[in-house]
Amino acid sequence: MTTDGKDLPDLTPDALRNRASWDAYSDGYQATHAEALDKAGGLTWGASEVPELDLHVLGDIADKDILELGCGAAQWSIGLARVGARPVGLDLSTRQLEHARRLMNEAGVDFPLVNASAESVPLADSTFDIVFCDHGAMTYADPYLAVPEVSRLLRPGGLFAFSHHSPIETICWPLDAAKVGDRLVLDYFGLHRIDDGEDIFYQLPYGEWIRLFRANGFDIEDLIEPRPLPGFTSSFLDADQLAWARRWPAEAIWRLRRM
Q1: Average pLDDT, whole number, for the chain?
Q2: What is the DSSP string of 20-81?
Q3: DSSP of 142-207, one letter per residue?
Q4: Residue 1 pLDDT grade (very low, low, confident, very high; cuts 50, 70, 90)
Q5: What CATH number does residue 62 fall under?
Q6: Is it the case that residue 3 has pLDDT exceeding 70?
Q7: Which residue range is the domain that position 254 belongs to?
């Protein structure tokens, strides 16, 4: 089952812009990164591609109801379905979900796909044991809207986990540059909505993330800052970016518990 988004409330101008961008970019993204996205059965975190088996972010997923925010072509959710979870994939991009349906058919698995924004999810309260995101909707959705939605969707005691660019990387990445540098170029205080000329993405200072989580009923269990392993190569990161990520945290994985 796939919802097509036609009956959803109007998207914000930023969401409409990001949706158009990802619909245009999806084919090239999937072609370029297919091998990385399929690594370890789809169950790897971030551009460093660290396996879930090593990090144990999601924990026991068998027989769990799991929502993936910003599922793209659903490589993660396909991997979760293969090991006994009950996933639902949500993405803003219609074209990404077309790739997801194709890959699901090839894998011989079936689960719901929802064409929607993480800022306004058309699903019932207290539906999921786990909500997670791997560099997906939590990058492109306003956290002041998305985090309350996750809190609403989770059952008490449920897990919210997501990977994101670290605030340190964000403030070292010039908006007109193709990759991160080694100087502070953006203001840290006041981080929120960032327009890079193509997409709108979101970031908060660490303290603001923490206040937002606690205001919406979350306990913070962990903040993981993965590093690329020696000799690792990536379709997402060139040699300079990998060297940067071995010195400073390029990514952050938050692990939160709904009280």
Answers
A1: 95
A2: HHHHHHHHHHHHHHHHHHHGGGG-EETTTTEEHHHH-SS---TT-EEEEET-TT-HHHHHHH
A3: -HHHHHHHHHHHEEEEEEEEEEEE-HHHHHTS-TTSSS--SS--S-STT--EEE-SS-EEE---HH
A4: very low
A5: 3.40.50.150
A6: no
A7: 2-165+204-258
First to last CA, the chain: 31
Better-scored residue on pLDDT, 36 or 55: 55
In the block, which residue shows the tokens 């914000």? 12
Query: What 3-state class would DSSP assign to 255?
Result: strand
3-state DSSP assignment of residue 254: strand
pLDDT in tens, 113-129: 999 999 999 999 999 99
In a domain, 233, yes or no: yes
Please say if the pLDDT value at position 185 is more than 60: yes
Would residue 180 count as lying in a domain? no
User: Quick check: is 182 in a domain?
Assistant: no
Q: Under 8 Å CB-to-CB from 163, ≥6 apart: which residues?
A: 45, 46, 133, 134, 135, 251, 252, 253, 254
Q: Angle at CA 171, nearest 5°, toward 30 and 43?
A: 35
Q: What is the pLDDT of residue 10?
A: 73
Angle at 74 between CA 73 and CA 80, to 5 degrees: 160
Rounded (10°) CA dihedral 227, 232, 235, 240? 70
CA 242 to chain centre: 20
44-74 core/surface letters (b: 16 or more CB in 10 A; e: else):
bbbbbbbebeebebbeebeebbbbbbbbbbb
Helices 94-107 and 75-82 meet at what angle, rounded to 10? 30
Residue 173 lies in a domain: no
Q: In total, how many domains does the chain have?
A: 1
Rounded to whole angstroms, the Cα distance separating 55 from 194 reads: 29
